[in-house]
Amino acid sequence: MSATMPVELAPVVSATARWLSHAFPSPWPGAFSSALVELQARQAVTVAAWLRYPTTIDAELLTIAGPGGADHLDWIFGVAPGDDRDQWRTWVDEVAASWAGAILTDPLLAECAVACLGRRTGSRGLTSRFRRLLAPDEQDRQAAVLLRHPDLVASIADLHADELLRLLDGEIAALRH
User: Fold this and answer.
1) Were both Cys, which of 86, 119, 146, 163 would link to 82 (CB 3.0–4.6 Å)?
2) For residue 64, what are the CA distances in angstroms to 1, 57, 58, 61, 68?
């Protein structure tokens, strides 16, 4: 696996980050705050998608089979399914959204997830690539206060948290010792 995300994951990352940033928008008005939420969601979803689809073949199979869409996530939130104009919603990956939610709300888990990616890719520069995820500044935290709130995101993060924890078990143990 290289340190570059397979191009096949781009629509899934984009759609899933968009869904998260719409579900947990910035409480502050303005394009800048919205962009900060989107950036943090995108970084978390990128890590989650990379972990979930670690090889180019996995990503290509995702393109063939499809990620599943946002319907179940919308149902959890009590939102009516989108209309036909919302084609992007078919590219939302529920597991990636769940893992991203868990990563965004738990700094140790985020650190472990990025460390796992670094180990898989043989890349050491991932910490700076995911700075907004790993070391958000005050503006990042304020803009994404809803997206990073464990209680608010729990209904999504808990959906597939066990799978993520099993995947990262070795990284978590290494960081705790």
Assistant:
1) 86
2) 20, 11, 10, 5, 11
**Measuring CA to CA, which residue among 117, 123, 5 is closest to residue 58?**
5
3-state secondary structure of 93: strand
User: Can you give the residue ranges of every domain in the chain?
Assistant: 7-176
The position carrying tokens 């597991």 is 95
Question: How far lies 17's CA from each of 92, 112, 122, 123, 166, in Å?
Answer: 8, 20, 25, 24, 23
Q: Are 148 and 105 in contact (CB under 8 A)?
A: yes
Using CA atoms, how far apart are residues 72 and 149, in angstroms rounded to an integer? 21
What is the residue-wise DSSP string for 11-51? Answer: HHHHHHHHHHHHHS--SS-SHHHHHHHHHHHHHHHHHHHHH
Residue 32 CB contacts under 8 Å (≥ 6 apart), including other chains: 143
Alpha helices in the chain (DSSP H): 10-23, 31-52, 56-65, 71-77, 94-105, 107-121, 126-129, 131-134, 138-143, 150-157, 161-176
Query: Tens digits of per-residue pLDDT, 66-115?
Result: 899 999 999 998 887 655 568 899 999 999 999 999 999 999 999 999 99
Measure the CA–CA gap between 63 and 49, rounded to whole angstroms.
13
